């Protein structure tokens, strides 16, 4: 007989309650963490670059690639006509060709690709194409598209007919625009395709390996079983690698297939920013009927999402904007319309919050307006309109807000951050400061957790226990920095009662766990954690059955803790039990599966329970603005956020802080600009400014609201990726508050997002104009 | 041939074309050291940060650079330290350990760059242990490193903890040896890297079209972003006579090759507002490399030093291939978009900034979308000389309002001899400035907003120097941990 391993791993380590670090932390700080571009390339590897269109619409009249082909080091050049299989790589509805097909969709659309001996040679060659265009005038404006009924998908309404006899005392209404957002993951888009005997192995930086597998198979016209996708880690995703990573894998795969050699395609930053989709810009219009106390009686909202040229995920994104157009507030009667406007821009895509933030912005803008209309503090008006019990606890789409933590969270935060004292101090400061004005806002978040496309709410896992007691875990989720693998490691270690280092979570691979959902919608831990738990429990059952029989004891008497297995009075090292089980032919490997319960939604009626549960939170932000220049800074932020029972508090706090700052960037400095021809001109980090270290407020306190999820989620935790992003709306509201102070809070200013210094000056001018002409009233 | 140490290993580069390669590509492609990352290849994100150690005043100085836009020629006789080299065997460097302990990495892609910036801070703190480490200093040192995941708080905590009172690290054990090895490296003798102005003159005669590189933080973008071939380049970084810094009774004299980092203490002493502006000039990585000469010769319409030099009425002294000098007032130096009075056979030698008198008030303001590491929408500098409440002289300098850095000459003329402490002076200034420029709309700001800033920054200058009213946000006011 072959010998088993001599020294079993996993001597008992009692570190279950010690805070653990990110599973890759040491690799990160030493430069040993491998991203796709760091992988040792096969010797025959060639490198690709993309040629982009320089028009936003029309078509290509002539495309002369002779100079490209003849350039130094060039191996191959391809266009849409060289795609062997399917040309359209759209994720849900058609409209995203691999390269420009008959019509040009946007400025910066990939037109051809070139393969060369080095990346530099490929990029130089790509510049040599000679292109002439048949011009057509592009549509670049959301409202123009809406007026012309140019939609990528049909409009939708969510209506609640809650007509009351009560007559409204006031009406507030406004229209404002919200800018999009560039993901600016630090690691740009990259893929490497390696042909092998089985077919093709794809390394990609993707949140959705299974979709990359499917699309590569389709463009090559191969069955899926010939493609394997391997994804160890991304250098950031944020939604920008959910659908947007596939194109580069497909192009690399086409070249790899044609040339029978490995091919890497890494986009330079500027190409990445021009050729990939962003957060949807929105134009939101709202009108609320309110009673004399500021309670909402009815509200109308029209949400126009600028989807760019194709549907991509826009149907679901505008849906989510509509689902969150209430944020935390009860609308007794409501009419929410969502439009998916088509423009000649890059197809806008998933980005943390997935439309939710844009919808919530309408609600929060409206609540501020109501407060100023009736002369009350915005916090008071927010509180009185929150979802409550007894008839004020159902959303406009008919879902009951159960286990509502909004009241508790807001009142705790309000006290902890001294809201009312600071409100008084700020009023006094503003009265005595002619140029510098301060603003304050406390805003809540209620965010629905689940994919609204029901079938995506499933996950698979594969767990192996090896004969030394070490455990390898694989699941369908992807690690993009959010700490998913760290949480999964904790879950598996806890299930088997072993030390963390006994568990290794390996690269996501489509040949280990198939048919996976994207790691998106904050669902990574909820779905994959449960699937992993399920796999662990199947193996545990095998072990328990074996031990109960062997030691002639009840199954309940068997425990797994601290690296030991308790069997009645015996305490056996886990590895020993595993070896024993192996010798007795017990299966030590299992798949696991999970599907989210309870959820249903009818898109035709706009009613249902699309979400398993809600995550809640609140933030209070204080800002200063310089009314001469519009310059501004966030001086203090306090956050209280609900993650249920935290699986890893440090990781959860990291997600909350990071999401908040990213949201703050979206609403302040991150300013996407297109020129009149439709070319993105904020196309690099020199012209597009995400928050830098000095933008982090000097007072920045985040606390977890410690309450278990009432739903049966993994260890009763809650999803954390997206919900805290929208806490940053408090910054935008605080800036509006500071602007309103120049009118002694009589005028609710129109402030478009992002609130750049320039936009703040524009808003201030609007306030001083309005002041003279008197307020709108009804 | 240029010689340098890559961590502990002596490396030599023979061919000129490789000397023009970026340090980042050399590390990743030639040396397969992939710990250093490319985020943007334009010096805007800091993922590629490495530390360069050089002998200065008989000791090693550790400074960060953006390896993505640094030509290899910049490394001659220096040690380049990468993230792979920080740990001492299995023992993490204190800055690495602090990043792990504080959960300072999420996706990890920016982390090597942060670690290197923090390492440089650590080394500089070893020299200055008496000054408490402030959040402000951390912001300055790490402002050129972008993180999209964490929101920075854990990174700030890691820096404050690890760099507050740094203990000796593994580099202290080997610093003497490294210093000796660097000093022993052969003198370079290449046209692309002259060591004297005579050698520069000879090289320029040989290659009259050669591009002069003095930091190269803007020039290299043509290579990394536009994939252009620069042709012959001459790197000025090894010419000692361009690195002088002197203070006379009347002037601050700055060698054209002085980096912004080296310039900072002198500005703090003599022109505090300009020093403050300089901390917002790009990032620490850029300031460590970029030179005053490079910034002015580049003639960007926005470059933030130019407006200040205009308002200060500084002169630049240029030299030609015969080593003759001529002095040019900055106020006449800029001729058009990226066009200056500098001839092809000339280079910038030094700047002469008249020191301020007690009856002169000088200030300079920058407005940008982001406070740190952003290019100005408008930069405005004012210098007023007052005698008995009368304006004797008023100078201006504006960036971002015209094709070149520009003065508001009509404004200067109108206000001269006016009463300083008179509200009418403010208003007349505003009217004059309203007519002064026709700025453009671009990605950073609209023409309308730029026009608004021109007058509101004048309002700020006048108000600040005539009253106690707070008229500017205080970004230095941050709580220290």
Describe the 3D structure:
Chain A: One of its GO terms (molecular function) is xanthine dehydrogenase activity. Chain A: Keywords: Molybdenum, Oxidoreductase. The complex is a heterodimer of chains A (778) and B (481). With 778 residues, chain A is α+β, with helices and mostly antiparallel strands. Among the domains of chain A are: 15-33 and 458-595, Aldehyde oxidase/xanthine dehydrogenase, molybdopterin binding domain (Aldehyde Oxidoreductase, domain 4), CATH 3.30.365.10; 403-452 and 611-778, Aldehyde oxidase/xanthine dehydrogenase, molybdopterin binding domain (Aldehyde Oxidoreductase, domain 4). Chain A is built from 18 helices and 28 strands. The radius of gyration of chain A is 28 Å and the shape is globular. Mean pLDDT of chain A is 95; it is low at 8-17 and 772-778. By secondary structure, chain B is an alpha+beta fold. Chain B is built from 18 helices and 17 strands. Chain B has helices spanning 16-19, 23-30, 94-101, 111-127, 135-142, 153-163, 170-183, 197-206, 221-224, 260-270, 272-278, 284-287, 292-298, 305-311, 330-333, 409-415, 423-434, 447-466, and strands at 2-6, 9-13, 49-56, 59-66, 79-81, 211-213, 233-235, 245-247, 251-255, 315-320, 325-329, 334-336, 339-340, 346-354, 360-367, 378-387, 390-399. In chain B, a hairpin with a 4-residue loop joins strand 10 (315-320) and strand 11. In chain B, helix 4 runs parallel beside helix 6 and helix 17 (423-434) packs antiparallel against helix 18 (447-466). The relative contact order of chain B is 0.09. The mean pLDDT of chain B is 95. Chains A and B meet through helix 1, helix 3, helix 16 and helix 18 of A and helix 2, helix 3, helix 4, helix 5 and helix 6 of B.
